[in-house]
Design brief:
Strand content of chain A: 15-25%
Number of strands of chain A: 8
Order of helices and strands of chain A: HHHHHHEEEEEEEE
Largest sheet of chain A: 4 strands, antiparallel
CATH class of the largest domain in chain B: Mainly Alpha
Number of helices of chain B: 10
CATH architecture of the largest domain in chain B: Orthogonal Bundle
Largest interface: A-B, 48 and 78 residues
Number of helices of chain A: 6
Shape of chain B: globular
Radius of gyration of chain B: 18 Å
CATH superfamily of the largest domain in chain B: RNA polymerase sigma factor, region 2, helix turn helix motif
Mean pLDDT of chain A: 77
Oligomer: heterodimer
Number of domains of chain A: 2
Structural class of chain A: alpha+beta
CATH topology of the largest domain in chain B: Rna Polymerase Sigma Factor, Chain: A
Low-confidence stretches of chain A: 89-98, 114-123
Strand content of chain B: under 5%
Helix content of chain B: over 70%
Largest sheet of chain B: none
Chain lengths: ~240, ~200
C-alpha cells in the first residue's frame, strides 16, 4: 500500500467537489505540473456544471438590490499580469504632503462654492437654503480639522458626484452631493450608510450636506433613487457609492 | 441504445451574452453586473438551494457567490471555458464547502443535524423548470451504470464527499473514485462537452 496514491484517480472526485482538506490541497498543488490532468479536470468540471443547470429557482427579489449594492462597495481583484519591474518608491513624506494639500484644496473649493452661491443668491428662499447649507459646510470644515479626517469623492453612474468627509475618531461624516441629475417628481435621492448589517437609511439628499453621527462599522456610503420620502431599505441599484473603509 | 444528439454550446445552459457580460464586469461595469445577475441568478440560486436545501443558508451562500463573481471576474478566462461553467463551478464549490462546515457543526450538535435531515425537499422540486438541455442531461444520465450515476449524483447534488458516498453505497473508496471519473467521462461524451 502506498502513502501517496496516484493523484490522477482523484480527477473525477475533484471535478465533483467530493474531496476536501489536505487531499484536495495536494491535488490542486499537482494540477499546474500536469497539463493533461488540468485539461481533463476542465472538461469534467464543465460536464459536472451541466448537472447544475437542471434546477432553476429565482432567488427572493429583495436580494438583487442587496447584491448590487454590496458589489458597488467591493473592490475587485486585479487581473493576473506578468510581474512588472518594481517602481521607484515614493517617499512617504511626499504622499502625506499630497494628501494634506488635496484636503486643503477640497476644503477651499467647498468654500469657493459657498461664496459663489452667496453672491448668486437672489431671493430670501435661496438665502434660507444657503444658511442651512452654511451650517452643513461649517460642519465640513469643522470635521476636516479632525486629525483622522478623510475626504473621499466618487463620480455617480448617472452623472454628478458625491463627496464625503469622514472622521472615525469622531464617529461622524458629512456627505455632499454635487450635480446629481434632477429626478422626476415622486422620487428622492436617499443616502445609505453601508455597515456589516447591510445598508442603514441616512437621510434624503435635498441640495445640502447630510451629517451622519454614529458611523459605527460603516464601510461605505451609497445613494439610491427612492420613492418620494425615502424607503426603509434600498429598492434600486445605487447611482453612487463611496467606500470609506 | 438510442444515440443522443450532441449539444451545442447554447444548449448547455450558457445563455448567450454571459461571456461578454462577465468580461465587462471584470472591468468594473456595474450595469453589466446587473444584467449578468438577471441572467444567471436563477441557475446559481437553483444549484445552491438544491445542494443546501435550507432557504436561509441558501440565500447567504447565493449572495456570497454573486459577490465572488463580481470580485474575481478578472480571473475568468474565455479561452479556458464558458462563463456559465466558471460560475456554476464556483457556485457548487461554495455550496459544498458550506455543507461540509455545516456538517462539522452538526456533528457536534446531533439535534441540529436531525432537523436538517427532515427538511422537506418538495418545495424545491416544484419550482424546477424543465428545459431542452435539462432533458438532454437527464437522458445522458440514463447512459451511466447505476453505480456511476448514484456516485455522481450523491456527490454533486447532495454535496457528499467520496468517502461518504463509498460508505452510503457500501463499496471501497477506490471503486467510488473510478465510478465518478468514468461516469463523468461517459456524461461528457454523451453531451459533447468540449473545453
Amino acid at each position: 500500500m502506498t502513502t501517496t496514491p496516484d493523484p490522477h484517480t482523484l480527477i473525477g472526485v475533484y471535478a465533483l467537489n467530493a474531496v476536501s482538506g489536505p487531499e484536495r490541497a495536494e491535488f490542486e498543488a499537482h494540477l499546474p505540473h500536469c497539463p493533461p490532468c488540468a485539461q481533463e479536470v476542465a472538461e469534467l468540471q464543465a460536464t459536472a456544471a451541466t448537472l447544475g443547470t437542471v434546477t432553476q429557482i429565482a432567488p427572493p427579489a429583495h436580494l438583487r438590490a442587496k447584491v448590487l449594492m454590496a458589489a458597488a462597495v467591493t473592490r475587485q481583484l486585479l487581473p493576473e499580469t506578468p510581474a512588472p519591474a518594481a517602481p521607484a518608491a515614493v517617499p512617504p513624506t511626499r504622499n502625506r504632503w499630497l494628501v494634506r494639500t488635496s484636503l486643503l484644496a477640497a476644503a477651499a473649493s467647498v468654500l469657493v462654492a459657498l461664496v459663489v452661491g452667496v453672491q448668486g443668491a437672489q431671493d430670501r428662499r435661496e438665502l434660507e437654503a444657503l444658511r442651512q447649507s452654511a451650517a452643513g459646510y461649517s460642519q465640513v470644515s469643522e470635521l476636516l480639522s479632525a486629525p483622522d479626517a478623510k475626504l473621499l469623492s466618487e463620480p455617480g453612474s448617472t452623472g454628478g458626484s458625491g463627496t464625503v468627509v469622514v472622521s472615525p475618531s469622531r464617529g461622524k461624516a458629512v456627505f455632499l452631493a454635487n450635480g446629481l441629475p434632477s429626478l422626476p417628481s415622486g422620487r428622492d435621492y436617499q443616502l445609505w450608510v453601508v455597515g456589516s448589517g447591510g445598508p442603514r437609511p441616512a437621510g434624503l439628499l435635498r441640495n445640502e450636506p447630510v451629517v451622519t453621527d454614529g458611523l459605527g462599522d460603516a464601510r461605505a456610503f451609497a445613494v439610491t433613487v427612492e420613492p418620494s420620502g425615502g424607503s426603509p431599505a434600498p429598492t434600486t441599484t445605487p447611482v453612487l457609492a463611496i467606500p470609506v473603509a | 441504445m438510442q444515440p443522443v444528439a450532441p449539444l451545442g454550446p447554447e444548449d448547455l445552459g450558457h445563455p448567450a451574452g454571459a461571456e461578454e457580460l462577465l468580461l465587462r464586469v471584470a472591468r468594473g461595469d456595474e450595469d453589466a453586473f446587473g444584467q449578468l445577475y438577471d441572467l444567471v441568478s436563477g441557475g446559481v440560486f437553483g444549484l445552491v438551494r438544491r445542494v443546501l436545501r435550507d432557504q436561509a443558508q441558501s440565500e447567504e451562500v447565493f449572495q456570497e457567490v454573486m459577490l465572488e463573481i463580481w470580485r474575481t471576474a478578472s480571473r475568468f478566462d474565455p479561452e479556458r471555458g464558458k462563463a456559465m461553467t466558471w460560475i456554476l463551478t464556483m457556485t457548487h464549490r461554495r455550496a459544498v464547502d458550506r455543507v461540509r462546515s455545516a456538517q462539522a457543526a452538526a456533528n457536534r450538535d446531533q439535534r441540529v443535524a436531525m432537523m436538517d435531515a427532515t427538511r422537506p425537499f418538495d418545495q424545491v422540486v416544484e419550482q424546477v423548470t424543465e428545459r431542452l438541455e435539462q432533458r438532454k442531461v437527464r437522458r445522458c444520465l440514463a447512459f451511466l451504470t447505476d453505480l456511476q450515476r448514484e456516485s455522481v449524483q450523491l456527490a454533486y447534488y447532495q454535496g457528499h464527499s467520496y468517502p461518504e458516498v463509498a460508505s452510503l453505497l457500501g463499496v471501497p473508496l477506490g471503486t467510488v473514485k473510478t465510478r465518478m471519473r468514468d461516469g463523468l467521462i461517459r456524461l461528457r461524451d454523451c453531451l459533447g462537452v468540449t473545453v
